[in-house]
Structures are given as C-alpha cells and as structure tokens.
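sorry to bug you again but im stuck and you know this stuff better than me. what follows is a protein written twice so to speak, once as letters and once as structure tokens for the fold. id like you to explain what the token line says about the fold, in plain words if possible. anything you notice is useful, everything is just below.
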Amino acid sequence: MPRKRQQYTPEEKLQVLEEARQPNTTVAEVLRRHQVDPTTFYRWEQQAKEAVREALGRDRRRSESDAKDQEIERLRAELAKKSRIIAEVIEENLELKKKL
C-alpha cells in the first residue's frame, strides 16, 4: 500500500535544513528522525540556496535602483534650476530690448 505524502510547511522545511547543519549531527540522522527522503532534503536545500541568491540579488538591484533614482532626482532639480536661470536671462534681455 503506498505511503501518503506528508506536506511540510516552509517553517518545517527550514527547521529540518537548519537541524541537519548543526555540529555533531549527520544529515541521515535528521532525515530518519523527520522521515524525509534524501532527494527531498537536497531539493529543499537547493531551493533555499536559490531563494537566498535571489533575495541578495534583489537587495543589490534595489540599492542600485535607489541610487539611480536619487541621481535622476538630482539631475531634474539641476535642470529646473538652469531653466529658471535661462528664463530670468531671457526676461532681462527682453526688458533691455524694450528700452532701446
């Protein structure tokens, strides 16, 4: 008779992964205790590593994106300032021309 598959929550999976990496503990011992197949365990481990890489990459992309956003905002402010100065100079020139 086939055995019913046990569903593990993400917290339970993380607990098994962390427990297996404790000093003086073997992976086989933890897998027996939790009745987890080695293939399943190593798949969880691979998924966890991929999730960590993605999370770390997302943080780096977010900080790069934040830096770009700040640079864009700085450039917009600089452009607005230059546009105001140009408008003032044009206005002064028009007033001087009227006086001629």
Notes: The mean pLDDT is 89. DSSP finds three helices and no strands in the chain. The CA atoms of residues 43 and 49 lie 10 Å apart.
